[in-house]
Each structure stands twice: as structure tokens, then as C-alpha cells.
Design brief:
Radius of gyration: 25 Å
Strand order of the largest sheet: 2-1-9-8-7-10-11
Largest sheet: 7 strands, mixed
CATH architecture of the largest domain: 3-Layer(aba) Sandwich
CATH class of the largest domain: Alpha Beta
Bound molecules: NADP nicotinamide-adenine-dinucleotide phosphate
Number of strands: 23
Shape: globular
Number of helices: 15
Number of domains: 2
Length: about 525
């Protein structure tokens, strides 16, 4: 399929401006030939205008029709076969097996949301029947359910060119809720974005979705993103990427005349606390597990373990030697793009020039945009003093924080900002001896992992991939799993509504057969 470099505005292609970007192959260092033209002002207006019109149909569309649309997107993505895999590999430098796995995850996510829609209870229908003769005042009939919010702008991530990109979890959940989506194409994989966008449009046409249900715009620099976030026709924003980018877009959205939510997932250091009991049992095993997680995918995961926290002692020395050996045996790995690579080098150089930090181990160097792995060490005292050391280093890097007492360990945890995950490596003795520390860890993150590594985010009903600020802008919501749909829906309450004006989910007799809360009791009646 030919890559045109044009933006996709509902069912039409557009690209009238002269400014463009080109994709880059991080493995070879070559610029790819196609030009991706920035959407003009008129094209941006058109995409938002179409989205608003499409919303008038989408918001009343039965869940089963949206489910069919999502499944058809999955089928169309699979139809792209090797062309998509090859393009995504070229633009990201990620290995083929990883991209194939990510494609499976993307299609699986779409199917999962389709399943959620077919089951139907996600709307959270709650009904309180009227008590007209209640004294002193009658009780009205009240019925509430979730409804879509309107056009959603999706900023995609560089590190998952499929699963957190054009047809990724944000797009899937926003469409599932009944919203049109406008994707801001990531400049790291514009060709992959175009292929997937066209697959979405084909699916939209096959499933009878209105024109404007989906658009994808190319831009040069930040102006496109800024225009989308500040446009009065946009109702909500999803973002995955850096703290700087997410916070800038969040601030813009709050300054609008009508502020809108920005659900930004901005990464985290994912502290792993290794307790003394488990350290004495299994230090070598822990070291190799952690080394694998630190270096997986060149460390380019939002759940990469960037901090390892432990109490000093002879078992820690054994663990440190084993970790050092594992890391020193790692090869350098190509990173996603020049910006991320340079950012990694600058941060690591800056950190290793500090007197309070020791390098424990470094992997081999060499290769185009290829990052070496590294682990450094700092005392708990210095870590507490220097908030700069608490920041994420995006890449195969981790900092071992060595505490001199349990109270210092508690202090370190207290100083941490919000995280996506935190991990406790424990044995039975640790559960008894460190209950206070384990309790403290509950306040740190959105997901608490026991005896496992943080990399690997299961897509399912009970996943929570979100955490207190600054891991995300709103820790009440997840960007992975079925609950992600709640970001793009709002409750609407109908009071004393005529039966024929009620959505099916709230009607008497429960025609959809969904689970609902009826007069305080969960029922399918
Ligand atoms: P990013 O730089 O935050 O960019 C994400 C998207 O937001 C891109 O489309 C970018 O536009 C746009 N954007 C960023 N700042 C903006 C601003 N101020 N105004 C308008 N639009 C803006 O993330 P990235 O490119 O994926 O990776 C860069 C860094 O993000 C990494 O070094 C890493 O620290 C972090 N990161 C975190 C995660 C995570 O899971 N949370 C994932 C990947 C990366 P352009 O395409 O024009 O740049």
C-alpha cells in the first residue's frame, strides 16, 4: 500500500501545506524518503468539524455496532500483514518479534473493548424507582448511566508504535465509549501511523460509522498539538509520553475558557524495594531478574525499574555483585529515536559526574543510537537530599539506593513522587518484620507488585496503569485495560424521564439484559 504522507480527515486524504517531516530509521541512521505534510489550519478545522458532526450519530449508536467496528479495525490491521510489521520495525528500530507481539496486543485490546461493549454493563446503569407517596417529600425516579464526552484528541507514544499509538488503548477506549477520535501522529513513526489510520477508515466504512469518526493529522513541531488541545470543539485528551510534554498540554487545557481533562501518562521510576529476608534467600536470582527488566527493550518502558531500594548489609553486597555481573554482560541496544538517545546520554553523563553517585556496572557500548546499560549506587542520605536523583532516566538505567536503617527506608519512600508501580521483593519473614514499610508502599503507586518485575502490563479487566501525579495527571484512571473507557465517558442522570426518552440501558424490563443497580441491588432483572 502506498504511503502518501497525507493527513487522514475522516474519509478523505489531505495535505496542502509545504512543511513536512520525514521518518528516520534508528537502526541504520537513514532518513526514509516519504514526506509527511503538516495539516493546515483549514484541515485541522475540517477534522474537528467532521468529528463534531460524527458525534451526533455516534452518541446514540448501539454498543453492538461499535463492537463490530472495533473488531473490524483489528481485522484490517491484520490484513496489513508484513507491510505493517516491516514499516513499524524500520521506524522504531524495534525487533520484528517485538512488533508482531505488539500487533497481537493491539488487536487483542480492540477485541477486549468489543467484548466489553457486547456485554454492555460498562455503562454502570443505576436506577432508583420513584416513591411518590414518601413523606415528607416524594422520591423522584432517578436513572444514571455513562455517556460519551465528545471528540477526543490522542497523543501517541514513541515507545509502542502500535499498542500505545494510532489504534492503541487510548483510541480503542475513546471509540468504544462512543467518541470520535483525532490522532496527532507521532513524528517517530508517521508511516506506521498512516497504514493503521487507513485500516481504521476502511473499518469505519465497512461498519457504517459516520465520516469523521476518526482522523489522523500530521504536524511539524508542537503547534498542531497545541491547536488541538486548545480548540473549543475538543472535549478530552489522552497522552502517553514525557512529563514535560504531558504537563505542558495539561496546563494548556486548564487555561482554556472551557477547561477539559488531559489524561496524561508520563512515566515513572517504578521503585523496587528488596527486603532483607528475600535478599538472604535469593540474591542472585533477584539480580538476574532485575537486570533482565532494566535492559528489556533498551529500558524504553514506562514501567522500567529505575530505582532499586534496599537496606545495607552483607547480602546486599552479594546482590550488588551479581547485578553488576549481569549488567556488564549486556550489549548496547538501539533506541527509538535521536531525541530519546541523546536525552539518555545527557542524563547518564550528568548523573555519573556527581560525587555522591558510584557506577556499579556498565554494559558494552557501540552501534547506531545504541544505549549501554548502567546501574549506579547512592546512599539513602544523599538520595533524600537530592530530588534530581528521583527523576526518570528513560533507558536501560537503574539507581540502587542503599539505606542505613528501616527509618531511612521509610523516609526514602516518603520522599518519592507518585509512581505507576512499586514492587516489593519479600519472603515470609519480611511480611512479619516490615509491615510498616509494606503499608507505606501502598501510598506510592497505582500498582503494587509482589515478587515480580514491573515491566509487562497485562491488558485485562483489573489492570490499573496509572498512578498519583506526576506518573499521571489523574491517578483515579487507568490507560490500560477495560476501565480505560471511563476516562472518556461522563455520568448522565435522567430524572422522571418518560420511558420512550430513556436510553435502552435504563429502560424498564432491562431490554439489553445488562447488570444494573436497581434500588441499591445489583441485578440483571
Ligand atoms: P514526548 O516527547 O512527550 O511526545 C509525545 C507526543 O506529544 C508527541 O506527539 C509530541 O510531538 C507531543 N508533544 C510533546 N510535547 C509537546 C508540547 N509541549 N506541545 C505539544 N505537543 C507536544 O514523548 P516521546 O517522543 O514518546 O518520548 C520522549 C520522552 O518521553 C522520552 O525520552 C521519555 O522520557 C518519555 N517517554 C515516556 C513514556 C511513557 O510511557 N510515559 C513513553 C515514551 C517516552 P512531536 O511528535 O512533534 O514531538
Amino acid at each position: 500500500m502506498m504511503i502518501t504522507g497525507k493527513s487522514i480527515i475522516g474519509n478523505e486524504l489531505a495535505g496542502s501545506s509545504d512543511s513536512y517531516i520525514q521518518a528516520f530509521d534508528p537502526s541504520s541512521g537513514n532518513i526514509l524518503q516519504e514526506k509527511f505534510f503538516a495539516a493546515s489550519e483549514q484541515e485541522i478545522e475540517k477534522a474537528i468539524g467532521k468529528a463534531k458532526t460524527a458525534f451526533n450519530t455516534l452518541k446514540y449508536m448501539p454498543d453492538v455496532q461499535k463492537a463490530e467496528f472495533l473488531e473490524t479495525i483489528g481485522n484490517e490491521i491484520m490484513e496489513l500483514a508484513d507491510e505493517l510489521v516491516e514499516r513499524a520495525c524500520r521506524e522504531s528500530g524495534l525487533p520484528e518479534a517485538r512488533i508482531r507481539g505488539e500487533r497481537g496486543r493491539t488487536v487483542g485490546q480492540l477485541k477486549m473493548f468489543a467484548e466489553l461493549l457486547r456485554e454492555g454493563s460498562w455503562v454502570g446503569a443505576r436506577i432508583d424507582t420513584a416513591i411518590p407517596d414518601r413523606s415528607p417529600a416524594p422520591k423522584p425516579d432517578l436513572r444514571t448511566m455513562l455517556v460519551p464526552v465528545g471528540p477526543v484528541v490522542v497523543f501517541t507514544a514513541s515507545n509502542f508504535p502500535l499498542a500505545f499509538s494510532t489504534a492503541g488503548g487510548d483510541t480503542a477506549s475513546a471509540l468504544a465509549a462512543g467518541n470520535p477520535v483525532i490522532v496527532k501522529a507521532h513524528e517517530s513513526h508517521p508511516g506506521t501511523n498512516e497504514l493503521v489510520s487507513k485500516a481504521i477508515i476502511r473499518a469505519a466504512e465497512k461498519s457504517g460509522m459516520p465520516d469523521g469518526t476518526f482522523s489522523s493529522l500530521n504536524g511539524v513541531g508542537y503547534s498542531l498539538g497545541e491547536k488541538l488541545v486548545t480548540h473549543p470543539g475538543v472535549s478530552s485528551v489522552a497522552f502517553t509520553g514525557s512529563f514535560k510534554g504531558g504537563k505542558a498540554l495539561y496546563d494548556l487545557a486548564q487555561k482554556r475558557e472551557r477547561p477539559i481533562p488531559v489524561f496524561a501518562e508520563m512515566g515513572s521510576t517504578n521503585p523496587v524495594v528488596i527486603f532483607p529476608g528475600i535478599l538472604s534467600d535469593a540474591s542472585e536470582n533477584l539480580a538476574s531478574q532485575l537486570a533482565g527488566s532494566i535492559t528489556l527493550g533498551a529500558g524504553q518502558f514506562c514501567t522500567n525499574p529505575g530505582l532499586i531500594i534496599a537496606l545495607e548489609g552483607e547480602h546486599l553486597d552479594g546482590f550488588q555483585s551479581a547485578l553488576s555481573k549481569s549488567i556488564s554482560e549486556t550489549s548496547s541496544q538501539t533506541m527509538l529515536n535521536k531525541g530519546i538517545f541523546e536525552n539518555y546520554l545527557n542524563k547518564v553523563n550528568d548523573l555519573t559526574s556527581r560525587k555522591d553517585l558510584d557506577i556499579i556496572s556498565k554494559g558494552s557500548e557501540g552501534g547506531e543510537l545504541a544505549a549501554f546499560s548502567m546501574v549506579t549506587r547512592v546512599s539513602g542520605t544523599d538520595f533524600i537530599k537530592n530530588p534530581h536523583l528521583h527523576e526518570e532516566v528513560f533507558g536501560p538505567y537503574s539507581l540502587l539506593v542503599v539505606c542505613n536503617s528501616k527509618s531511612q527506608l521509610l523516609d526514602v519512600l516518603n520522599k518519592l513522587e507518585g509512581q505507576l508501580t512499586t514492587t516489593a521483593m519479600i519472603n515470609q519473614d519480611d511480611i512479619v518484620n516490615y509491615t510498616d514499610v509494606l503499608n507505606e508502599m501502598r501510598d506510592v503507586a497505582g500498582r503494587l507488585i509482589y515478587n515480580g518485575v514491573p515491566t509487562g502490563v497485562e491488558v485485562c479487566y483489573s489492570m490499573h496503569h496509572g498512578g498519583p501525579f506526576p506518573a499521571t495527571t489523574d491517578g483515579r484512571f487507568t490507560s490500560v485495560g477495560t476501565e480505560a473507557i471511563k476516562r472518556f465517558a461522563r455520568p448522565l442522570c435522567f430524572q422522571d424521564s418518560p420511558e420512550e426518552l430513556l436510553p435502552e440501558a435504563l429502560r424498564d424490563g432491562n431490554p439489553l439484559g445488562i447488570w444494573r443497580t436497581l434500588d441499591g441491588k445489583l441485578t440483571q432483572e
